[in-house]
Amino acid sequence: MALSLALILLRMTAPSSLENTASSAETTSPNPLHLTAEQDRQRLLGLLGLKESDLRPAPVPDARSPKATNYNETKANVYSNLPDPLVLQNGQPVKTPMDWSKRKREIWGDFDREVLGKTPMYRPSVEWHIISTTNEKYGGVDVVTKRLAGRVGPWMNTQIAFSIDLLLTVPAHAAGPVPVIMELAFEKDFKLATSGPLDGYVPTPWGVDGRMVLERGWGFAILNPVSYQKDDGSGLTQGIIGLSNRGQPRSLDDWGVLKAWAWGASEALRYFEMDKAVDAKQVGLAGHSRFGKAVLVAMAYDPSFAIAYISSSGEGGAKLYRHIYGEQIPNVAGPSLYHWFDGNFLRYAGPLNAGDLPVDNHELIALCAPRPLFIGGGAHTGDGYANPDGDAWADPRGMFLAEVAAGPAYRFVGAKDLGRTQFPAVGTALVSGDLAFRQHDGGHTPAPNWPFFLDFAGRYLHASGGGRTTQTRAASTSRCSGNC
Asked: How many CA atoms lie within 13 A of 54 on its CB side?
């Protein structure tokens, strides 16, 4: 019989918002409006007063093409006005913890308005069900594997419903709750991991090899983000975004898919807080490429995650928007990727540009301080297309420069930065501080950096032999019914 864990999530808000929510809940919601990605994107451009011709053309990744993106470092630093995370919007420097708290709110506000969108104050509750619990072996280790569904909806008089797909594997004979590394995985990785006995699971080059995690006495989890928000603009009136909007299209500053995927990671953490096998204060995140972007967003907005591995996240992730190299804003603002962001972000593909942004992604990294981050990718010397052994489309140097620029914020809160400002050679692991970086020569894959990340994480995460840790999260209450 499935175990139901009801999570009652109450968000406090202003009385006017509460009244608006209550009045809208009393009416019958129309059926979800179905738009193609192109229809929805053109609708957003119309709201901005823009046409497709107002946007800059998106460069192509393949260096062999005459329309290829810039791969010349001497032409990459077009914009020198990088925002300072330690200067308030009134021009005053951040000098005290109270100043830093205010500055963080300013940065969050700019990202919410101009890039990522605003997470709605009211969101539906998640009811977790343990679909199966299996005692098995993985890599010769006795483990307990739980396959979980976080069921959501219907809500607010909509007919929209979905489940958050999650797999959790922990050592069977741990002395107490254990740290967990949770990877946001491509759907093929999740299906491989849940299709049968775990010992038969062979991770693809994109996915975590849980054996390396289990060797440390930790557990690992796999979260399927597309189970609760489709990676397509045609899905924005479904999933958590569609449910929050009652099946209607987004406003210009409504949250995009990166924010929604980060929401699901936080909801998985809420489950871990009730699972006696997991030390919820020691949950790390990992993600590659587009899911690396989502991991950085989750870390920047949810202080409960302990550590993260962000692999090849590129534009929209750990890479500076102002470093014009590899993937650029017109690429991620195009019809196939625009849904990651809010509607206002389209303006920065033209007539505005990266230099007009009030923020840049080094400030997302700064918001994670003092928690440790390991940022990595393939080599910057090959484009990943004409030269499949490289990863220049993701711009490893742009990610490194973002970490360097976030260093002062880490130092301000008493943490250690990268320890150097010179771009390291391929294969050099910078892991002496709380910010870490490494590029490898394996192309667009996280696999070569996994051992280095786990060694780095070993300085912060420790297999528990003691009692249960507890944690109280702000702005929510949780209840667990049954034997958690």
From this structure: 14
Pairing mode, if any, of strands 307-311 and 278-288? parallel
Long-range contacts of 68-76 (CB under 8 A, 24+ apart): 68/383, 69/325, 69/326, 69/327, 69/328, 69/331, 69/393, 70/324, 70/325, 70/326, 71/325, 71/326, 71/383, 71/392, 72/325, 73/325, 73/397, 75/324, 76/323, 76/324, 76/325, 76/397, 76/398
User: Cβ neighbours of residue 364 under 8 Å, at least 6 residues apart?
Assistant: 111, 296, 297, 300, 318
Single pTM value for the model: 0.91
The order of strands in the sheet holding 278-288 is 3-7, 126-138, 141-152, 162-171, 219-224, 178-184, 278-288, 307-311, 373-378, 435-440
Residue 145 — φ and ψ, nearest 5°?
-115, 125
User: How many Å apart are CA 449 and CA 455, to the nearest integer?
Assistant: 10
Q: At what angle do helices 290-301 and 257-272 cross, to 10 degrees?
A: 60
DSSP state letter for 3:
E
Q: What is the DSSP string of 112-127?
A: HHHTS-BPPS----EE
Closest C-alpha among 300, 298, 241 to residue 267? 298
Tokens of 469: 């840790």
Return the sign of the alpha-carbon dihedral for residues 249, 251, 257, 262: negative
- Hey, is 178 helix, strand or coil? strand
The DSSP output letter for 2 is: P
Q: How far is 415 from 365, CA to CA, in rounded Å? A: 13
pLDDT of residue 18: 26
Residue 212's Cβ-side half-sphere holds a number of Cα atoms within 13 Å equal to 17
What lies within 8 Å, CB to CB, of 351 at 6+ separation is 50, 54
The distance from CA 280 to its chain's CA centroid, rounded to whole angstroms, is 18
What stretch of H or E contains 102? Answer: helix 97-114
| Residue-level pLDDT at 464 | 67
Nearest to 36 by CA among 329, 330, 338: 338
Tokens representing 481 are: 């019914």
CA gyration radius, the chain: 22
pLDDT in tens, 266-286: 999 999 999 999 999 999 999
pLDDT in tens, 345-363: 999 999 999 999 999 999 9
Q: Which structure tokens are listed for 229?
A: 């928000």
The answer to whether the beta carbons of residues 229 and 257 sit under 8 Å apart is yes
Residue 186's beta-bridge partner residues?
A: none
Cβ proximity of 240 and 140 under 8 Å: no
Instruction: Encode burial over 165-196: b for 16+ CB neighbours within 10 A, e otherwise.
Output: bbbbbbbeebeebbbbbbbbbbeebbebbbee
